[in-house]
Design goal:
Structural class: alpha+beta
Number of strands: 2
Strand order of the largest sheet: 1-2
Strand content: 5-15%
Order of helices and strands: HEEHH
Distance between the termini: 46 Å
Number of helices: 3
Radius of gyration: 14 Å
Length: about 70
C-alpha cells in the first residue's frame, strides 16, 4: 500500500510537494477513524498533528499569512 501511494504521489509529500530527505514519507491518517490519507514529509505530518486536524485553525492561519504576505520587516 505504501509503494502504491508513493507512486500515486510521485514520490513527494502530498502537502508541500517535496521529496523526503533522510526519512521516508510518513503515512498520514485521520485521527478519529485511523483511516490512511496520504504520505507526508515529517514537517507537514507534524504540523497537522499539532492542530489536531482542526480545519478552522488552518483556514485562519492561511488568512493570517495571506494578510501579511507583503509585509515589510
Amino acid at each position: 500500500q505504501y509503494q502504491k501511494k508513493l507512486v500515486e504521489q510521485r514520490g513527494v509529500c502530498a502537502i508541500c510537494g517535496h521529496p523526503p530527505k533522510k526519512k521516508r514519507l510518513a503515512v498520514d491518517h485521520e485521527h478519529k477513524t485511523g483511516a490512511n490519507r496520504g504520505l507526508l514529509c515529517w514537517k507537514c505530518n507534524y504540523g497537522l498533528g499539532l492542530w489536531n486536524d482542526n480545519i478552522e485553525r488552518y483556514l485562519t492561519a492561511a488568512a493570517y499569512l495571506e494578510k501579511y504576505k507583503n509585509a515589510i520587516s
